[in-house]
Specification:
Oligomer: heterodimer
Shape of chain B: globular
Strand content of chain B: 25-35%
Order of helices and strands of chain A: EEHEEEHHHH
Radius of gyration of chain B: 27 Å
Strand order of the largest sheet of chain A: 2-1-5-3-4
Strand content of chain A: 5-15%
Structural class of chain A: alpha+beta
Largest interface: A-B, 62 and 65 residues
Structural class of chain B: alpha+beta
Distance between the termini of chain A: 40 Å
Helix content of chain A: 25-40%
Radius of gyration of chain A: 17 Å
Number of strands of chain B: 32
Number of helices of chain A: 5
Number of helices of chain B: 20
């Protein structure tokens, strides 16, 4: 986590650094109190403080989409969102799509069936972004899916199997 | 030979050849896989590298006082704190290159922008960043060299005292001068490629800690065998350093050299606390290794009917400031410079040159991919000059089994490149029409020959350990690292095929230098070939050992057993009842009879040697052949190239997992499209021009069409069950294929990558002005 002090502890004074303050984040349906510095990103809080390894640092510029989460249902880049901006709002990560027994969401099933992951690093962002698209558009065309995914880069698959998986789910 | 004839040579399999969803896929779609950065330990510190902001300088002062004084800083280390501050990489095994050491932390001199100078550990990432800023370094800038031509000029500043030419490989056969003089037609060209960034989505990362006197690093790496190098740096016995490779978020060769390892090792060993290091994307762009830019000069002579008689090839590769794997990359370029064609008289030189650019090293394709643009451009020029079709001129020259390569090696597996060419073209269908005025369409092809397996003089080997557990489940231990291509999963399929354990009863433990038998790294398209064979042989040997026990229980000869579905049964069912035993029952019987159900096997690749003075000898174990085909539209007003359709076909020998094979081909082709058209890690006077990921253009989902794939299974590879490697080959064809299609559309041949709109417009202008000669 960015900011000073040991994780979970009371911040130490260090130079001109500001102190942490508590916020409540609703993550995957559970309210969590976390202490954050005002400049702390949602990505850092989710990944390092709350241990959500499905939200990943990829570029820190909002270009690659590996830190995608849904904020009140809309995809955002965790690296460009301050944690304080998410206070009191619903944050959904990929894990939040699964049932209590880790039953896969039907879109995850499609990714699995179609071989839409290789290294898997982009997969959470791909699934969350396309889920939002389908919830908004119903049955998007392949070109509409491509357009929606321009902020989610994949370096392994060439996208074809990702598009196949999303199309299959949209057609269900 | 027809496809049917070829395919009948592959023995039928039950598990191999299917595309099940493995453990790794399941974890990935759940988001539950723990990558290198996803590891936290109590009291963990955060590491940060301090890097040189200039490309060539003497360090005249280094003051860490302010950095050390910052609250929360635990360590600031410099060259003086490194027990043995040198990494000696002899990538060709010392066969022909200069020996140049690379410091872990710069000691008085920096040779590229981004070179590590110091390393910091602090209680938070932010404090580590601040401390890195407080390390005060005085640089006295020195003249540098930033391209291969100036680096080779007389009196050029030396990157290293021993000189700027790292290695120069020679391969010669026949009488090239005589054959060129006698040729009916001679074509030539100069082709230039660019620095390219790997751009794996997972930046370099890892965590290191000390426990029981052992330094352990859990990192994103393709090569856990770097444990030995890390031990040297710290002055420790090899047995005191353990490297664990997490499943990688992409590697593509960029994690074949060490990345975070030496810095994590220094910090964890020095502080005795766990340390995490994650390189910023921007840091990775500036300082990680790149693909070598090549300058390639080709001159090709042929008879009137298109038969190639001679080829002269000169390759210069920009190695950057340190050797890394450049000697081997430039060797692969030399060995593959003539492509999948018979060239009776050949003269090839391939030279790696030091510059003050960021080091170049391994990147999917590894020298054998840059040269495809060279040899395929020559074939298209020959076709144009002789009035032959592009397929015709290729078919006249394709290698066949039994042919000699310019190194004097004889090809001992089949070459199905013609079949891949016809299938790739077949997938495109009817040629498209231009979409409007000012638009021109064209079709291109690109064939390649790409090696799989390490250069043969390394006498490569891989080990694997299998154990049938008491409950009948199977455990595999292998030092393989998994880059996302299914390296681990493929091994499970091969073991399942032989031992009959269902895939969900197989667990595989990989990537641990202390606990797994060594597999060598995952690079050189070698793991299916090497570890696939190791697991195949381990499984067969284990089955041979336990089969007599099963045979005894079932009352049939040991050679008449089928291992499938978690059971062992006679191959000939004599009665009506299902007479079989479970693998658990077999394991129990083995235990009672003191027959071990665990087995370690080491598989060795064929050995050979290469003489760098004569340029003759053995190079690679075998090759994968393939062809790509594309339709493009060129907008003559803007220079924009739109790829309309793209098709790829490779002979993979046998597809162990067809879906993963398709994925390799689609992903390789897409990376190749970025290389061909958009990606350029431009470095001006030693300074990287793309400071942000936003300014380095890897393909997004909208940029290019789907890649259509067809797979040939000739059954003649040297991998397990006749497989050939497919990790690297499919990136090779792309730039040549697109250049071929642009040439077809506009009548001029692009010879410089990437083929940006600006460059296409310049080509069109040159053609209009009549200043461009296509074939001199």
């Amino acid at each position: 986590v960015k900011g000073d002090g040991e994780v979970g502890g009371v911040p130490k004074a260090s130079g001109d650094r500001v102190t942490k303050r508590p916020i409540v984040l609703s993550v995957n349906g559970h309210d969590q109190e976390v202490w954050v510095v005002p400049s702390g990103t949602l990505l850092d809080v989710l990944h390092d403080e709350l241990g959500l390894a499905d939200v990943r640092y990829g570029c820190g510029e909002g270009v690659c989409g590996t830190c995608t989460v849904l904020l009140d249902g809309e995809p955002v880049n965790g690296c460009l969102t301050l944690a304080v901006q998410a206070a009191g709002r619903q944050v959904t990560t990929l894990r939040g799509l699964m049932g209590p027994g880790e039953e896969l969401h039907p879109l995850q099933e499609c990714f699995l069936r179609r071989g839409a992951s290789q290294c898997g690093f982009c997969t959470p962002g791909m699934i969350l972004t396309s889920l939002d698209l389908i919830q908004r558009c119903g049955r998007p065309t392949r070109e509409e899916i491509r357009y929606a995914l321009v902020g989610n880069l994949c370096r392994c698959t060439g996208y074809t199997k990702i598009l196949d998986a999303i199309e299959e789910y949209a057609g269900q | 030979m027809t496809t049917r004839d070829l395919q009948s040579r592959t023995e039928p399999c039950k598990i191999v050849g299917t595309s099940p969803a493995h453990h790794d896929f399941v974890d990935k779609v759940k988001g539950s896989l723990l990558y290198a950065a996803d590891w936290q330990l109590p009291g963990m510190l955060h590491g940060r590298v301090v890097r040189s902001p200039v490309p060539s300088a003497r360090i005249t002062g280094l003051d860490v006082t302010a950095a050390r004084a910052l609250p929360g800083v635990v360590a600031v280390l410099t060259a003086a704190d490194v027990p043995d501050n040198q990494i000696v990489e002899l990538a060709s095994g010392g066969l022909a290159e200069l020996q140049v050491t690379m410091p872990v932390l710069a000691d008085g001199r920096v040779r590229y922008m981004g070179e590590p100078v110091a390393v910091v550990a602090a209680v938070t990432q932010q404090i580590a960043h601040e401390a890195a800023e407080l390390v005060a370094v005085d640089y006295e800038e020195l003249p540098g060299v930033f391209d291969v031509s100036s680096a080779r000029a007389d009196g050029a500043p030396r990157v290293h005292d021993v000189g700027n030419t790292l290695v120069s490989w020679q391969i010669h056969s026949g009488d090239v001068a005589g054959a060129l003089a006698a040729a009916d037609v001679v074509v030539e060209g100069e082709y230039r490629t660019q620095h390219v960034e790997h751009a794996y989505l997972e930046p370099e990362a890892g965590v290191g800690w000390v426990e029981n006197g052992v330094l352990t690093l859990r990192v994103s790496t393709q090569v856990i065998e770097h444990a030995a190098t890390i031990a040297h740096i710290l002055g420790l016995p090899h047995s005191k350093v353990r490297v664990i490779a997490a499943y990688l978020g992409g590697g593509f060769g960029g994690k074949e050299d060490m990345t975070v390892e030496p810095y994590l090792a220094l910090l964890a060993w020095h502080t005795r606390r766990p340390v995490r290091m994650i390189w910023d994307r921007q840091e990775s762009l500036a300082a990680s290794t790149k693909r070598h830019p090549f300058v390639m000069r080709y001159r090709t002579g042929a008879d009137r009917d298109g038969t190639i008689t001679a080829q002269r090839v000169e390759i210069l590769g920009d190695a950057g400031a340190y050797p890394n794997l450049s000697p081997r990359v430039l060797f692969a370029a030399a060995a593959c410079a003539c492509g999948p064609y018979r060239v009776p008289n050949a003269s090839i030189t391939s030279t790696a040159v030091f510059t003050n650019n960021v080091p170049s090293s391994a990147f999917r394709g590894f020298g054998a991919m840059q040269v495809v643009l060279g040899y395929e451009s020559q074939l298209d020029l020959l076709a144009e000059r002789l009035g032959l079709s592009r397929t015709e001129v290729r078919e006249r020259n394709f290698l066949v089994k039994g042919d000699l390569l310019p190194t004097g090696e004889r090809l001992d597996t089949c070459v199905e490149v013609a079949q891949t060419m016809h299938r790739a073209l077949g997938m495109l269908g009817a040629p498209p029409r231009p979409s409007g005025p000012g638009k021109l369409t064209g079709r291109g092809i690109g064939c390649n020959r790409h090696p799989y397996g390490r250069t043969i003089w390394f006498r490569d080997r891989a080990s694997a350990w299998l154990s049938l557990q008491a409950d009948g489940t199977l455990l595999i231990r292998s030092g393989v690292t998994d880059l996302g291509a299914g390296q681990a999963a493929s091994l499970c399929q091969i073991a399942a095929e032989v031992l009959g354990a269902p895939l969900d009863h197989i667990s595989i433990y990989i990537g641990d230098s202390a606990l797994n038998p060594p597999a060598g790294g995952t690079f050189a398209t070698r793991q299916l070939y090497m570890s696939g064979n190791a697991v195949l042989h381990a499984a067969r040997e284990l089955r041979e050992r336990i089969a007599p026990v099963a045979a005894d229980l079932l009352g049939v000869p040991a050679g008449e057993l089928e291992f499938a579905g978690g059971r062992v049964r006679p191959t000939r069912n004599t009665g009506t009842a299902d007479v079989s035993i479970t693998l658990a029952e077999l394991a129990a019987a083995c235990d009672r009879r003191a027959v071990s159900t665990a087995h370690l096997s080491t598989w060795r690749a064929q050995a050979g040697s290469f003489d760098p003075r004569t340029g003759q000898g053995d190079t690679f174990p075998d090759y994968t052949y393939g062809t790509h085909a594309a339709d493009v539209e060129v907008d003559t007003e803007t220079g924009q190239v739109t790829v309309l359709r793209y098709a790829a076909c490779h002979d993979v020998g046998r597809a162990i997992n067809p879906m993963r094979v398709q994925g390799q081909i689609q992903g390789g082709a897409m990376q190749g499209l970025g290389y061909a058209l958009t990606e350029d890690m431009a470095i001006e006077d030693g300074y990287a021009q793309a400071a942000l990921f936003a300014s380095y253009l890897i393909p997004n989902a909208q940029d290019f069409p789907d890649v259509l794939v067809d797979i040939v299974e000739s059954g003649e590879g040297k991998g397990p069950l006749g497989a050939r490697g497919i990790g690297e080959p499919p990136i090779g064809n792309v730039a040549a294929t697109i250049a071929s299609a642009i040439h077809d559309a506009v009548g001029v041949r692009p010879d410089r990558l990437p083929m940006t709109p600006e460059r296409i417009l310049a080509l069109l202008d040159e053609r209009a002005a009549g200043t461009r000669e296509e074939h001199r």
